[in-house]
Amino acid sequence: MEEFDVLVIGGGPGGYVCAIRAAQLGNKTVCIESRGTLGGTCLNVGCIPSKSLLHASEMYSKAKNEFKDIGINTGDLSLDLAKMMGHKDKSVDGLTKGIEFLFKKNKVTYLKGHGSFKDKNTILVKDSSGSTQEIKAKNIVIATGSSVVSLPNINIDEETIVSSTGALALKKIPKKLIVIGGGYIGLEMGSVWLRLGSEVEVIEYMDHITPGMDKEISDTFLKILKKQGMKFHLSTKVLDVQKTSNGTIVTAESNGQTIEIVSDIVLMSVGRKPNTDGLNLESAGVKKDSKGRISTDKKFKTNIENIYAIGDVIEGPMLAHKAEDEGMAVAEIISGKYGHVNYDTIPGVVYTSPEVAVVGKTEEELKKAGIEYNVGKFPFVANSRAKINNDSDGFIKILVDKNTDKILGVHMIGPDVGTMIAEVVLAMEFGGSAEDIARTCHAHPTLSEAVREAALAVDKRAIHF
Questions:
Q1: 220, 247, 270: which is the final residue of a domain?
Q2: For the sheet containing 373-379, what is the strand order?
Q3: Active-site residue among 55, 321, 340, 444?
Q4: Helices H, strands E: what count in the chain?
């Protein structure tokens, strides 16, 4: 029986990064993945394919609706959905093979199959043919990710009632798409099909979209999406979804009234659950919390000395980059080095148009905690690059400690803010202040100048607004 220093169950962003880093640190490392391709949900049916369709659909929408405003006449414009989907699939295939190359480069053993515990040091690996083998390891990292959940008694068939996976592979543009859930994923996929010609309606149980986001950003985001043509049913509870011969009927309750909405496709986007079933955790003695997540300490260690867990199976936001950071950290901890993740500086991004990017505390959280703060805001309509790009919806808001000027949270909605958020994440990682950003030279004309202006606005000295 082959023995390894580090065994990683799961080849998603957390798992494959952990395996590569562990191998770089001199550990004999193996990664077990059941999907058949590396990259997990993110690369195969999540982050990457959705961004491919978001980009393509945005280009189509701009060509159809905006190019003429800047003197570009396109003539008759047509959409080849099959080719668009083919480009998405080609991109995914190339990137998954790229991870396999990185495994070979770093001497990580890659096993295709389903891993489950026999005991705290032994994993049973069952491949697609049904044959099994046992693998022993000194240290085991659980990085099995998460999967979609539905509402009670509503079954996802990935044809008429779809998850994000099915929404990424529709063979034709639905005339009408109902999105159940107004979070990041639902709004991104709704935006794709809205741009391509679908009528899109979002049903959200809360009285606002993107729960947990800074309220001012969330409200502005809602107004912009409505302006784009997306319709919303807020404070609305879905009771049932029935399939019909040509689509679905969604029954919901709003303000004490029962409503029915007919659509071609229903996208269930109400959250995800940790993938812990089938791991046979009991055989290793690994404990879970009340929400089905694996319990760990601050060093990602479970109640069993040599078993660790990272990513979507533990507490925290279900984000690929959070899992990656944890993967690197746990590999370093296992190797006797210092691994750490600062959960106050993990950004979140919605890749719609405009993008939304957030990091740190919201105004609501600061008020609840009784923390005194100052605010600096700057609108993209006053940014020269945004104006000439004809893309000036949104603003940047910086929240700082009133006494120390330390940055506590930054909330952005506007063009390319998913990239620009990195500047403030870095500033926060170093304990930076608004003054630090305000005194940093930013190239002109760039969108990032809006970050500096928002930092200047904290002290009421913005130049261009």
A1: 270
A2: 348-350, 355-360, 407-414, 395-401, 373-379
A3: 444
A4: 14, 22
At 1, the amino acid letter reads M
Q: 1 pLDDT band (50/70/90 cuts)? A: confident
Q: What is residue 2's predicted lDDT score, i.e. its pLDDT?
A: 86
Q: How far apart (Å, rounded) are the C-alpha atoms in residues 234 and 254? A: 8
E strands within 198-336?
199-203, 231-233, 236-244, 247-254, 257-263, 265-268, 272-274, 307-309
Q: Which residue has the tokens 């991104």?
A: 188
Structure tokens at 195: 């741009």
The CATH number of residue 67's host domain is 3.50.50.60
Q: Is the dihedral of CA 205, 208, 214, 218 positive or negative?
A: positive
How open is the CA angle 88-163-287, to the nearest 5 degrees? 110
Tell whether 318 and 399 lie within a shared domain. Answer: no
In tens, the pLDDT along 118-163 reads 999 999 999 999 999 999 999 999 999 999 999 999 999 999 999 9
Specify whether 121 is located in the same domain as 52.
yes
Q: What is the mean pLDDT of residues 354-362?
A: 98
Q: How many CB atoms are located within 10 Å of the residue 6 CB? A: 26
Distance, in Å, from the CA atom of 465 to the CA atom of 6, rounded to the nearest integer, reads: 55
Alpha helices in 66-141, H assignment, sequence order:
81-105
CA angle 268, 172, 53 (to 5 degrees): 70
CATH number, domain containing residue 446:
3.30.390.30
Range of the domain at 439: 346-458
- Tokens at 454, concatenated: 């928002």
Q: Is 39 helix (H, G, I), strand (E, B) or coil?
A: coil
Q: What is the pLDDT of residues 40-49, one digit of tens each?
A: 999 999 999 9
| Together in a domain, 323 and 262 | no
Statement to judge: residues 10 and 110 lie in one domain: yes
As for how many domains the chain has, the answer is 3
Per-residue burial over 240-274, b = 16 or more CB atoms within 10 Å of its CB, e = otherwise:
ebeeeeebbebebeeeeeeeebebbbbbbbbebbb
Residue type, 13: P
Active site residue 444: yes
